[in-house]
Amino acid sequence: MTTPLNWPESLWTHSAPDEVENPPLTNHLTADVAVIGAGYTGLRAALALAEAGLSVIVLDAGDVGWGASGRTGGQVNPMMPFNSPQRIKELVGERIFETLAEQSLNSADEVFDLINTYQIDCQARQNGWLRVHHSKAAQKKATTDIANWNAVGANMRIVERDEVVAISGSRAYRTGTVNPRGGAVHPLMFVRGLASAGKARGVQIFGQSAVTGLAKAGAKWAATTQGGSVTSEWVVVATNGYSDGLVQGLASSVIPITPIQIATDPLPPDIIDEILPEGHTISDSRRVIMYARREPDNRMVYGGHGECDKQGNLSGFDWLVNDAERVFPQLRGVTWSHRWGGRIAVTEDHLPHLHEPQQGLIVGLGYNGRGVAMSNVMGRVMAERILGATPETLPFPVTKIAGIPLRNLKMIGMKHVIRWMKFLDYLETR
Q1: Which of 130, 289, 324, 364 has its CA 20 to 30 A from that of 304?
Q2: How many Å apart are CA 20 and CA 393, to the nearest integer?
Q3: E strands within 286-397?
Q4: pTM higher than 0.90, yes or no?
Q5: 259 and 342 Cβ atoms separated by less than 8 Å
Q6: Residue from 16, 53, 47, 214 nearest 115 by CA
Q7: How many other CB atoms are found less than 10 A from the CB of residue 280?
């Protein structure tokens, strides 16, 4: 995994209870399964495997939730992004589509059920997700897509301007879509809760233990760190946007992007009371989206697309502030006390990818902005595969790792593409 960057402290780190760091690996251990990555995907897989009686060791270059899982916007939004139901059918086929659609639409419910089952204290609330439409074209597309998603059980509905204003507090949008299954969590508390549930069932977790080598050792695998190694029958690779050269071709199969967020201190009633009064999360339909939520202590969190240079410096926060004030004029002049970001993985087809490049090696990544919900589904599915499920019964197709065509050029041009998309969004929003 990529060495952690010295990024600014997030609101989540600031507001979560103190946590004892997991020690680095300093010896040579054996387990049934080694998990690389202590985020949602890896810890969900570890928890399921431990409950089935397997011994599991989790290794992370940072610690639990250091990557995107502990830095995300924390919205638990079901439904696949970008692709329409018809497009997904074309990509994966009718049989896979049915199970994939079911898993996607139920993904938020699965997260909240998981939180309830393990009594994870993470400020969980499932009050619905409002996706507002930035243009007439976006509304038209949403209407068609919703009809198709509802045909497979989505239960979404279009809301008109008066209801948009009532449940969002914003007059910047005329229509929107409500998905009642959406919600929010404190993402760092959630991922730490998964870790605690795993530990209670025997999972061992080692922080500051970047895996520098992964190789077959006879019939088993050896994952090597600076301080030790883990020998196991299976290896779960759950590195997502932080994937490097550990698994051949994996890093070039995704494009890492950097969502960023800003957050206020707790706001007084005269500012906050009109904003998202029923507790919905909100995002919009632009190419470069915004997403926001109101916290239990009356803070506002606002997120969107950012940039990260080679030194790890994040930028794009000024755009976020301006956009927040456009969408919610109530926030003009407030102090944004926290600014942070994380790295996620985008795939060429905008679908999660499940790979099994060698026997005993399984990889899951690529949630395209739906990581809180879909990464937990992926972790469970990888555990099911290890426990004996056959590939054809899984909701994700098991595919070969394939590089994205012209990936380097696309990454070099990403900044200019994002600026062009923002300009198009601006014209349409006007």
Answers
A1: 364
A2: 39
A3: 291-294, 300-308, 314-315, 336-341, 344-347, 353-358, 361-365
A4: yes
A5: yes
A6: 47
A7: 25
